[in-house]
Amino acid sequence: MTERTTEQAPSRSSQDENSAAGSSTIDTVTEPDPARGRSHGSPIQGRGERIFRGLTSGSGLLVVAAVAAIGLFLLVQAVPSLLANNANFFTSPVFDTRDAANLNFGIRDLLVVTLLSSLFALAIAMPISLGIALFLTQYTPKRVSRPFAYIIDLLAAVPSIIYGLWGIAVLAPALLPIATWLSTNLGWFFLFAPGNLPVLTGTIFTGGVVLAVMILPIITAVTREVFSQTPRFHIEAAQALGATRWEVIRMAVLPYGRSGYIAGSMLGLGRALGETIAVLIVIRAATTPSGFSLFDGGYTFASLIASAASEFSQPLPTGAYIAAGLVLFVLTFVVNAIARVVAGGKVNG
Amino acid sequence: MSTATGLDSPDRPAHGPTFQALSTGRKIKDKAATVLVTLAFLIALVPLVWVLVTVVGRGIGAIISADWWGRSLNGVLPESYAGGVYHAIYGTIIQALLAAVIAVPVGIAAAVYLVEYGRGRLAKTTSFMVDILAGVPSIVAALFVFAAFISIMGGVQSAFMVSLALVLLMLPVVIRNTEEMLRLVPDELREASYALGIPKWKTILRIVLPTALSGTVTGVMLALARVMGETAPVLVLVGYSQSINFDPFSGNMASLPLLMFSELSNPEPAGQFRIWGAALTLILIIMILQLGASVVSRFSAISK
User: Fold this and answer.
1) CA-CA distance, A82 to B175, in Å (whole number)?
2) Both A196 and A52 in a single domain?
3) What are the transmembrane regions (chain B) (predicted)?
């Protein structure tokens, strides 16, 4: 198909392009740009070229504009509510927007529950992802590792609402013995202290395990990608020194892939911070503020917004939730930006 | 080597054997690492199999019931086992397709810009923002659409608003996939075209994009699969309806995730029946898209 196009094209297009473009754009014909790497810019720059270039650059700009607009519109909608807020936005644990004339909302508890559940998920998912990435790149032949990697990717294809349903209906009862054991034997440690829920299911603990399953494929995909790019001669040099497979990994693969692994973990963290529906279904609401225990309940930024979505009618209470959304946006922005900087070009996406 | 050392001291070699046996400690570490990484892989299979078995086991009864694929829940009582979900399937598909209609051309054009034209600061910013957009949580995208198009511009909640939020979630997936495929197109093809005097834009449209077509289609299908299961946008941006609504620009419209979420507040066993049935239906639709994507990528003109 490609070849056919190449053969046909000159007879029809090159001549009229030449005649059309030749007169008008002589000055732009020779414009050597030393910075150009792979674009071997055709010397002919007619109207079609300008239009096409404009359209594609415009689409690129649109992406930039979209991200800027998200921040801007959320800010514009949040400011009036923040000004009308009677509580301290950063330190108050209550989120009361029932009375539009007397708003009291703060994000302390949201921040605690969001960070606690996401970091707990990260703590579970990081070592397992590392193991899977090593297994798929260093221990299995390519013929086998392709389908295996596809299976892990399937974990990312399951919608989050299904993880939520599974988490509360199936996983939570199964985790109850573990939660009970941790609570009775390690209750002196603040993470496993008695929480603000009457039961040990539907806690941050349960939610964190569900989140760990959801971010596992993300961390694995990025880490696997970077590990598979380890220079062949690093590995062979280690092998020539008589290193065992594990020593090859420690001397060649891990040092090369460390930044990618951290970047992948940050991407996973970003995903966990913003996860909405699974957390909303799994983690129960609590009446008292969180005490930094994994057996607490409560709302994350995302789940609180989703839980109130049906009541978005008055501007001021809605603005309170938009303010929470703005904080979440900033949080994920920072985490993703860090991931990109850490990766330093080794990771794409 | 052996003759030289043998002449000097016939009883013992000048140095030890070149290859020594592995010490026990190193052997144990190596074996332990093998066991651990294999275990990590097996652990990851547990939730996947567990979720799929749960959904299939609890949902199979619903999706083989007579009315499941051809009826809506119009007039069906909460405790009744009647009705079907075709209204929600329609909603899920139309919302995703509307989003694709906007996201695919813009995404492909942005990818062309990044690969073929983008140089300097603007291109770097764009690439950075694509990464940021990929990390924007779906609830934030939904809130943005709510703030911009409903609060400020005075729009009403509708399926189209959901599609607008889905556009933001689809764009980075489409851009990154297309970008990757465009970078795989060999430069020889471009050069051959330029050598024939064909302008750059025509080369991109007629040579580069067709060569990368199957990869692009794969990316679009994966993006569709990703947004179909999104629940946060439908919660914020459209109301639930038990009956069919063909008009995405006005009125309430069901979708599979929204149906599942509304049935969560149904205390009757029939609610659970519908939830897991809808879950299995959603997984089936996503699996079909995923399979389609991998079939299409088989026909790729360029290999990785």
Assistant:
1) 36
2) no
3) 35-64, 84-115, 127-150, 156-175, 207-228, 275-296
Domain harbouring B202, CATH code: 1.10.3720.10
Whether A320 and A203 map to the same domain: the answer is yes
Of B132, B275, B301, the CB nearest to A336: B132
> Residue A214: which domain range?
95-343
Minimal CA–CA distance to B144: which of B125, B168, B173, B170? B168
Same domain, A247 and A328: yes
Residue from B17, B205, B264 nearest A169 by CA: B264
Q: Touching check for B43 and chain A: CB below 8 Å?
A: yes
What is the ipTM metric for this complex? 0.88
Higher pLDDT among residues B154 and A225, named by residue? A225
pLDDT in tens, A199-217: 888 899 999 999 999 999 9
How big, in percent rounded to 5, are the helix, strand and coil portions of chain A? 70, 0, 25
When CB atoms are compared, the residue of B172, B187, B206 closest to A5 is: B206
A318 and A233 both lie in a single domain: yes
Model confidence band, residue B16 (pLDDT cutoffs 50, 70, 90): low
Question: What is the number of structural domains in chain B?
Answer: 1
The range of the structural domain enclosing residue B142 comes to 86-298
Tens of pLDDT, residue by residue over A106-121, are: 899 999 999 999 999 9
Q: Has residue B283 got a pLDDT over 90?
A: yes
Q: Distance between CA atoms of A34 and A31, rounded to whole angstroms?
A: 9
